[in-house]
Amino acid sequence: PSVPPPPPPTHSRYPQPLTYLKLHESKSFSMGVFCFADKAVIPLHNHPEMTVMSKLLYGALHVRSFDWVNAESELGPGTLEGIPRLARLVSDRVVQAPAPSMALYPTAGGNIHCFTANTEVAVLDILSPPYAIGSGRDCHYFDEVPEGPLGEVAGEGEAWLVEIECPKDFQVKRGPYHGPRFGSEAGG
Questions:
Q1: How far is Cα 149 from Cα 143, in angstroms, rounded to an integer?
Q2: Whole-angstrom distance, CA of residue 107 vs CA of residue 105
Q3: What is the pLDDT averaged over residues 51-78?
Q4: Of 6, 110, 125, 183, which one's alpha carbon is 20 to 30 angstroms from that of 45?
Q5: What pLDDT shows up at residue 184?
Q6: pTM value?
C-alpha cells in the first residue's frame, strides 16, 4: 500500500495572535492598545501618510524599522509588485518599559517597522490620520530580501524590501475594552 503524504507543517511564522483593544476612532485619529503574547509579532508593515505615536506600556519589545532611501519616489508608500526597494535601517533594538514614546512620521522615524515581543507586551498606538483603505492610507506588508532588482547587495545599514500580501498566518483579534469610556466611545 502507498504511504499518505505527510501533513502540512503546523508551525506558523506568526505563531501567537495579538489582541487589539480599540479606545477611540474618528476621522482625525485612532487610538488603541495592542496586547502581545510572548514571542508574538506584528510583521514588517507601514503607515502611509500617517503620523504614529507608540508607547510601550509594559514588557520588552524588539523594534526593527526602516525608511525608504528615496522617500520622494513616484512609487509612493510601497514597491512595484515583486521588485525590491532600498530602505535605510532606522532602529534594530529592544525597548524595555518604561521607555520614551516612539514617533513615526510619513517619511521618517521608521515608518516601516516590525514589532516582536520578547515578553508579554502592551503598546498604546495613536495614528493620525487613521488607516483609510482606498484613500492612500492602507497598510502594506514587506519582506526583507537579500538582493535588489539587479542583484545588488544592500550596503551597511540598508536592506532591500519587497511588498507582500498580508501574511495569512498573521492574526489580530479584537478584544473588548472594559476601562473608562471617552471620545467616540463615551456615548451620550
A1: 14
A2: 6
A3: 86
A4: 183
A5: 61
A6: 0.84
